[in-house]
């Protein structure tokens, strides 16, 4: 295993050293997953959020000024039908953190499972909820849950998210205990973030036993307190991807749209660095404009873009890695 010192030094690798790091990471991915990339379809449920993250245009302080929306359960299921028709069996339901999505999810999740004859991974990314609510969502058929820790630096976390790191980690532990496959994620190049803190992020992902971990370079978004901060460094984010892969070969690591937004070709480099997940956006055009993930100027990933990119990288698309295990654990629970 790489030492902290080695990781810190590899975070700033460039040129030949960086290419060797990526090649090593790709070999680790190949050994664990072969030449395959997991394909997800995402539906953006709502742009309403009760949290006030300083980097996000959907933060609580902006909700009143934003053109807000909630999808209905019918709209979600109709969109899931499009995802199914595209041959994708991972349905990611993502939105701001608000308990208002719960009744909608309660209605939609069992219908999505029926649509797929149970052969689907329902992946949630809807923020902190109560443990009993996690239990309910798991019981009605959600498989996996992403709750990004964003930064492992407790002071920085509190300063930019106005929530404690400790509570985020407690929720991740609850999700695991309830039976979810869990995912975390970090933002790299945050103002005030040190390289040591990014090494901590990698170690933290290992400690919590995560199944999935994303890395997004910081993007200063309009209408946020961080709008004037400098844009993040893709190379740093790519090196974090490679280090995560080397330390935890089993991880599902997406090549996120933020990489493409920061630099054209960024998602292709993400695959080069050892990522193994791509996410296609199935939200309607109008909702994509209102889901202000980095402001209105976002890169929306289409199925054609993903197919092109994956083929060019000499890789193949595949479905969920959790479905078989899930079917077995749900059957043994009966
Ligand atoms: S990053 Fe997520 S939790 Fe934070 S304000 Fe935006 S939608 Fe809410």
Please describe the structure with a list of short key phrases separated by commas or semicolons:
alpha/beta, eight-stranded parallel beta sheet, 15 helices, binds iron/sulfur cluster, TIM Barrel, 8 strands, globular, single chain, 334 residues
What does this structure look like?
The protein is α/β, with parallel strands linked by helices and 334 residues long. The chain has a single domain, classed as TIM Barrel (Alpha-Beta Barrel), CATH 3.20.20.70. Helix content is 47%, strand content 13%. The chain is built from 15 helices and 8 strands. Strands 1, 2, 3, 4, 5, 6, 7 and 8 form an 8-stranded parallel sheet that branches. The longest helix is centred in the N-terminal third of the chain and has 19 residues. The chain is globular. Iron/sulfur cluster binds next to loops.
Topology diagram in text:
Elements: H1 4-11, H2 15-33, E1 36-44, H3 60-63, H4 73-85, E2 90-94, H5 101-115, E3 121-125, H6 131-139, E4 144-146, H7 154-161, H8 165-178, E5 181-188, H9 195-207, E6 212-217, H10 234-247, H11 257-262, H12 266-272, E7 277-281, H13 285-290, H14 303-312, E8 316-318, H15 323-333
Parallel strand pairs: 1-2, 1-7, 1-8, 2-3, 3-4, 4-5, 5-6
> What small ligands are held by the chains?
iron/sulfur cluster
- Classify the beta-strand content into a percent band: 5-15%
What is the CATH superfamily classification? Aldolase class I
Helical content class: 40-55%
